[in-house]
Amino acid sequence: MSYNFNEIEAKWQKYWSENQTFRASNSSDKPKYYVLDMFPYPSGAGLHVGHPLGYIASDIYARYKRHTGFNVLHPQGYDSFGLPAEQYAIQTGQHPALTTAKNIKRYREQLDKIGFSFDWSREVRTSDPEYYKWTQWIFIQLFESWYDLEAEKSRAISELEEVFASEGNSRVNAACDDDVEEFSADSWNNFSSEEKQRILLKYRLTYLAETEVNWCPQLGTVLANDEIVNGVSERGGYPVVRKKMTQWSMRISAFSERLLQGLDQLDWTESLKESQRNWIGKSVGAMVHFNLYGETLKKVKDDGSLSEHQKRISVFTTRPDTIFGVSFMTLAPEHDLVKKITTPQQKEEVQAYVAASAKRSERERMADVKSITGVFTGAYAEHPFTKEPVPIWIGDYVLAGYGTGAVMAVPCGDQRDYDFAKHFEIPIPNIFENADISEAAFPGKEGTVIANSDFLSGLEYKEALQKVILELEKTGHGYGKTNYRLRDAVFSRQRYWGEPFPVYYVNGMPQMIDAQHLPLRLPEVEKYLPTETGEPPLGNATNWAWDTKANEVVSNKEIDDKTVFPLELNTMPGWAGSSWYLFRYMDAGNEQEFVSKEAQKYWENVDLYIGGSEHATGHLLYSRFWTKFLHDRGQLSVEEPFKKLINQGMILGQSAFVYRLEGENVLVSKNLLGKNEVQPIHVDVSLVNHSDELDIEGFKKWRPEFKDAKFLTEKDGSYIVGREVEKMSKSKYNVVNPDDICEDYGADTLRMYEMFLGPLEQAKPWNTAGITGVHNFLKKLWKLYHNGEEFEVSEEKASADSLKSLHKTIKKVTEDIEEFSFNTSVSTFMICVNELSAQKCNSREVLEPLAVLIAPYAPHIAEELWSKLGNSESVVNAEYPVYEEKYLVESIKNYPISFNGKMRFTMELPLDMQKDEIEKTVMADERTQKQLDGRTPKKVIVVPGKIVNIVG
RNA sequence: GCUCGAGUGGCGGAACUGGUAGACGCGCUGGAUUCAAAAUCCAGUAACUUCGGUUGUGCGGGUUCGAUUCCCGCCUCGAGCACCA
Predict the structure, then answer these.
(1) Rounded distance between C-alpha atoms, residue A144 and residue A502, angstroms
(2) Residue A711: which pLDDT band, with cuts at 50, 70 and 90?
(3) What is the 3-state secondary structure (H, E, C) of A800-831?
(4) Which of A887, A910, A937 is where one domain is finished?
(5) Could you tell me the CA-to-CA distances from A98 to A104, A727, A933 in Å, in that order?
(6) Which alpha helices (DSSP H) does A128-231 contain, by range?
């Protein structure tokens, strides 16, 4: 019987599904293991061969863990809210729920064909109200929490209210908005309830605030920082502008230090951790206050609109030790003080500069790093130690969004300050011992000795740093401070297809819908575009008001602002649902809780997470944040979501090209190009065979505009296409569909070939031509168990050679799986089958364990062989074979004999032969004498069991 | 500019803590089988070579009996961050 993979694979896929083979139980005596793939977005284009790479790797590992006695959780589901379905809805009017359902169906069919061991009984979809009910619930928990910086922990907002009522806010060390005013217990108790709500909003972990956001007009929504790449939107590449809008934000910045520290405990790649460290951007330094000087101070003092601490300029610096090198200050053009301090003489120039830089987009500002621009304000600040006046400039090299939006400029130590000073002819005092600053600034830290700096002179960097901070604190001119680049995350999207906020507004103040009334379902709308008045698509809904008496959604007409109030019109961003989904899988059907305490305690968190590196600073940071938050509030026993994480490399496509002569309807075969000016045109790879020959007729049919084109072909009449490795994408016509591979070669071949391509983490090109090697291997494997058409295994004892082949393979494959080196284990299987074939081994003693060994990689053929071997239970729970040393013991070693480090010949010697004995035997060999050619060796190095090297 | 990866045959890649460079597979060449093709099987396949050898893991040095592996200095490619004070 030949290897009929189509039949075998269909049979076992049906068996697994009918028997719920991969259903995981929440109670087991076995140790648990949780394997998770990154949440897929079910796109309309379906899967190409690059998508399943990570799924196959995680599936092999999950199956392996099951064989070795673990209770494995390996779920799958869909991150099904998102932009593409909504863009499609805008174009076609079709409800995104319909397109999404259709795409999911297709996705599932494709996944099923590859034979994954997913527990589909736990499937979740973020767009399912039974799921987003809990996303909304978590949002409410965030709203009801604040961050205690003292305890480094999220706490209930009610506890904060108690503190306010008993002692005011002066001693509260909380993560909050910058503009919180101090108040006493008395004033708190006298505040109106509305005033109290307004203040509490400044402390909540999710809060409503007018912030400068990244607005993308083409997408009609705001974007988070991680959704912008090089100043344009990641999706679509549209321009992004800065705009002030009232938005929901998440106070993730409160967690900066913990998000940073937590990385050390994680088994993630260094590069991924590095990305997160960069993103969090910790810098240690000091806050320094510069009082305003003379006339400037007088001018500002008269301005009643400023609070006391606004009447000075605060800067953040990592080098407070260089404070005596300050020769000017620079404010961001957007800085609040700019207007207040500018002198009348400078007013015109400053206003023009501010206006010009406001017009420049973020992108322009980033692109244009070289040109130095700035204006003097005419104002002066007072140096905190020398009391000398320091001129205040504005310049757009200072970012409004980082630190305080102002810097103390130390041109001798910072290149940007240096360039600015040179350009505007500002003095550059040198405060470093033995530093040459005639050409460039001197940015050195360790070992640098400070000079010309009063009480800091003669001190080394570290000592100076400590001393100056002490002095700043003593004189009230500043304090030591750590700054983070991580900004709070904007949480609102002006889109339809996302989770509705469980929020209604009373007098403009947000109120939470009581959790027991969730989910708040997405309303039906006529169209998915923003309203004519510029409100988000939910503004089109006619039933979108909250009745606080009936606790239900009612018609907008009933809004009376007494018992019926308007609902929030924004929806949540994509990362809301994906920040906690890993926990939902633990207890997917639970209607009482987002996950039960028992289920979560049992599964803890994800042991192995596999997915793409594009989520480094988005999803992976946000889900760490939510996990820490839910842990703080007693909802989770763990503080991190993903213990081990592997980024699979991208599978690239091999695009094919035809070449058109410039301006002519003539296509030239690749080898005839010569020096002609040609224009390469993508060809669908399905029109090209393994020898790169184009199906000319097929091509003409595909692109009718070339039906009359002239083809300059090779001598044999073939047209050879050019090849190039590019990202796999529809637009490049280089997509290979896994369905076709499964149809032609089978899922087992696909699985093994994807692994065989190379190391999991590495990017590598797909080449369908190479798949025959793996397919032949499976055929050879099949043959081992068959004699001609008949299944036949022998009950006789296997030969020593065969047992050695088997155990060598067990050892190597087990090591490889543990190290996620799947490509080398496929090679190992090939070697094993080649050896067993040569040995004509068909002994059950070898073939039965081999079937289990290969089951994680090629599960269908393994099941079939396993059942033919007479087993009635599925192979998935069969015990994994254990390697036994005794089969591998060697008595002879084929020693390489090297001369001056170069191997010349080999010699078989007993492994127990002693060093001097080996030397004698080797030296006595005639080949040795021939190599030496009469010379006497200086030295003979013998490493028993390894090598012999003769020097001289 | 900074950080992190990576450079090995025609191609994908292998080589565990320094010890036979190129495993395994693709492709290619030759052969068997076949009326023929596909499929299958066998042999060969780093380069150069006067067939003795010589050179070879991005480049230049170093350590070592011995380096793809360790150290120093460069080059190239990829990824991330990027006026972050």
Answers:
(1) 13
(2) confident
(3) HHHHHHHHHHHHHHHHHHHCCCHHHHHHHHHH
(4) A887
(5) 10, 29, 84
(6) 129-143, 157-167, 185-190, 193-201
Residue type for position A855? A
Tokens matching residue A6: 């189509």
| Contact by Cβ (8 Å): A148, A173 | yes
Same domain, A798 and A843: yes
CA A181 → CA A188, A260, A309, distances in Å? 11, 30, 11
Q: Quick: pLDDT tens for A886-934.
A: 888 878 888 888 888 888 888 888 888 888 888 888 888 888 887 777 7
Beta strands in A423-497 (DSSP E): 478-484, 489-490
Question: Tell me, in Å, how far CA of A830 is from C1' of B15?
Answer: 17
Partners of A722 in beta bridges: A657
Which positions 701-760 on chain A have a beta carbon less than 7 angstroms from any atom of strand B?
756-759
User: Both A812 and A881 in a single domain?
Assistant: yes
Whether A752 and A722 map to the same domain: the answer is no
Does the structure show a pLDDT above 60 at A361? no
* A860 and A897 both lie in a single domain: no
- Kindly report the backbone phi and psi dihedral angles of residue A728, in degrees, each rounded to the nearest multiple of 5, phi listed first: -75, 120
Of these ranges, A39-53, A717-731, A807-821, the one predicted with the greatest mean pLDDT is: A807-821
- Cα(A924)–Cα(A943) distance, integer angstroms: 18
How far is A56 from A851, CA to CA, in rounded Å?
18
Angle ∠(A205,A644,A603) on CA atoms, nearest 5: 70
Supply the range of the domain harboring residue A432: 282-484
Query: Which residues of chain A between 892 and 951 are close to nucleic strand B, CB under 7 A?
Result: 894, 896, 898, 900-903, 906, 939, 941, 943, 946-947, 949, 951
Q: Is the pLDDT of residue A38 over 60?
A: yes
CA of A469 to C1' of B48 (A): 69
Could you tell me the CATH number of the domain that includes residue A930?
3.10.20.590
Number of domains in chain A: 4
- Supply the ipTM of this predicted assembly: 0.93
Q: Which nucleotides of B are covered by protein (CB under 7 A)?
A: 3-5, 11-15, 19-21, 23-28, 39-41, 54, 65-67, 78-85
Cα–Cα distance, A890 to A894 (Å, whole number): 11
d(CA A307, CA A301): 10
